[in-house]
Structure formats: structure tokens, C-alpha cells
Amino acid sequence: MILARRSLIAGTAALPAGCDRIAEQPTARRILFLGEDMHRGLQRALSDRNALAPEFTPDQRSPFFRPNGTRDPGTTEYAALRAARFDDWRLKVDGLVARPLSLGLADLGALPQRAQITRHDCVEGWSAIGKWQGPRLGDVLKAAGLRDAARYIVFTCADLYGGEPYYESIDLVDAFHPQTILAWALNDRFLPVMNGAPCRLRVERQLGYKHAKYLMRIQAVGSLVGIGKGRGGYWEDNVDYDWYAGI
């Protein structure tokens, strides 16, 4: 199943660039995301979701790490944060937590760090290898104190799609995976704007659209009902992408 998914990803390379352009290709969309429930169930049953994604050596990094999705949110609010070098940026952590948090870049940098060189696989059909650094999402959630009712983690972003913030979600298995981090650095430098500054999610066992950029809020919820149209993410709600995009 995983090899079949990789083949389908590679087959999309001839499509127009950009995840939003795939939405204009209904035949490709049906092929790529046919049988979502069957794929999700089988992949979870047949794969070890606690296994680590492959990691690479520094010399294997791509010379240029191209951006996926939005290149710049372009909003007045984001422009102000960017102009201040994100000194005023705060990441809210709330929802079903005992201790809501408001974290700046210095706070993220003060937490135990993980650095990993991994491959980003985009649904557009390209891949790139880069070094990411940041705290584990699981450590942040532990600091906030997840309540027993929490089942999913929802990410809200600064970039807008259809006038509304981009959003994505993962379950607690992926949230506490050791390679799931809140990355503030790429290749030993602060994240460039095109790659999601000041902070983005890296959930290495899933496709690129799950790696939410320009993070503004992390929310613990008990259900995906009421999040967008209820399927857990912008592309899932609007273009029938898989919610669990494991690779």
C-alpha cells in the first residue's frame, strides 16, 4: 500500500504545479484519493506508525528546499510580524489542556531540541531533503497538560485560503511521535518565509500538506466535528485529500 501511494505521488509530477492546481484535475484527484477509508484502515493496520521516517546525512541535503503551498501569507498581520522579525509572534496552545500556553520563538528555543534530516514528499510529485530543528510537539503538549478527552491536535495558520486561515490536524499517535516537531530552523538557519516562518509543523510520516506552515495556534480537541467541514483539514474538506496521509 505504501509503495502504491508513492507511485501515485510520482505520477502527479506531470500535473500543473501547486496543490491547488490538482483540485482542477478531477480524474487525478479520484485516482489519488480513491477509497480513503479503506486506505486509512489498511495502512494503519499494516504499518507501524511508531516507526521512524528515514533520516539522511548532511551531504544528502537538497541544494534548494523548494516551498510547498503558500509562499507568503501576505496579510497585514503577518507583514507586521515579519517586519518585527517575529519578536511579537506568539503560538497559542489551548483547547483541552490544563495549562494554556503562549510561546514565542525564545520559548521554543529554550525547550529540548531535536534536529533531523528528513525527506519532504509533496503531493505535487516532488521531494526534497532538509535539516529541521525545533522542540518535539509532544513535549509542548505535555507542558500544556492534555486533558483525557483530547483525541486530536488542530493547527491554525497565518496563511489564508478562501479568506479563512489554513488548518490541519493529526491524532495523538502522530502528535507524540518523536520526529513530530515544531520546526523554527531549516538547514541551521531560521525558517525562510517561503518555508513557513517563524514555525511550522514537521510530521515526518505523512505527506507535505499535513506539515502546516506559519503556525499561530495549536488546539487540542475531542472531535474533528466543527473544525472546518469536519474532515480535519483544508484540503481534506475541500479537495477530498486523505486525512491520514501516511507514506
UniProtKB/TrEMBL annotation:
Gene Ontology molecular function: oxidoreductase activity
Keyword Oxidoreductase included in the entry's annotation: yes
Keywords: Oxidoreductase
EC id: 1.8.-.-
Ranges where the Oxidoreductase molybdopterin-binding domain occurs: 85-220
UniProt gene name: yedY_2
InterPro entries in UniProt: OxRdtase_Mopterin-bd_dom (IPR000572), OxRdtase_Mopterin-bd_sf (IPR036374)
Protein name: Sulfoxide reductase catalytic subunit YedY
